[in-house]
Specification:
This protein has 168 residues and is of the alpha/beta class. The chain has five helices and eight strands; from the N terminus they run βαββααβααββββ. Strands 3-2-4-5-6-7 form a six-stranded mixed sheet.
């Protein structure tokens, strides 16, 4: 389950609205080994969407800086985020899948970062109601939808440097 604060969801949705119809992308970082996203880092979509349709790709220099800062701050990527903007990469009516579902390219990216949540916000228009979903790959490499729980604040089991969100 992905437990995420409402303010972080609001930041992702606002970014998706600003960049629509291009796909927005970013990362949510948190303390190492906590699975708790604490801050959203919006990133530049370096994909040439006009030439190839709607996709996303992190700018490599920007991504390096994010990883460098995360390492310096004892953080790690907890969530990779991007939006889907209703430029279908597949015939939705035939697939039965929601628009907020990983594309083939998304699944390839997921394989590069096992254990990281991949969150997708689908927006059919800049003012549309967002559909937030999260996905992981299981041990066999299959896409599994991960339940998303949006909270106002994290409930902590104890105090100290290794605080973790309550699971219950």
């Amino acid at each position: 389950m992905l437990v995420i604060r409402a303010d972080l969801v609001e930041e992702m949705v606002a970014h998706a609205r600003r960049d629509h119809p291009r796909e927005a992308c970013g990362q949510l970082l948190g303390p190492e080994d906590t699975d708790r996203p604490e801050r959203y880092v919006p990133m530049t979509n370096a994909d040439d969407a006009e030439a190839r349709g709607s996709d996303y790709r992190f700018d490599s220099r920007e991504q390096f800086e994010v990883y460098k800062q995360a390492t310096e701050n004892d953080e790690e990527t907890v969530v990779v985020f991007h939006s889907h903007t209703r430029v279908p990469r597949r015939p939705l009516t035939d697939s039965g899948l929601p628009e907020a579902y990983p594309s083939v390219k998304d699944i390839e990216y997921m394989g590069l970062q096992p254990g990281v949540h991949f969150a997708i916000v689908a927006l059919t228009g800049p003012d549309a109601e967002p559909d937030l979903r999260s996905f992981l790959l299981d041990a066999e490499g299959r896409v599994v939808e991960d339940e998303v729980q949006v909270v106002e604040r994290y409930m902590l089991s104890h105090t100290g440097a290794d605080d973790v969100p309550d699971k219950g």
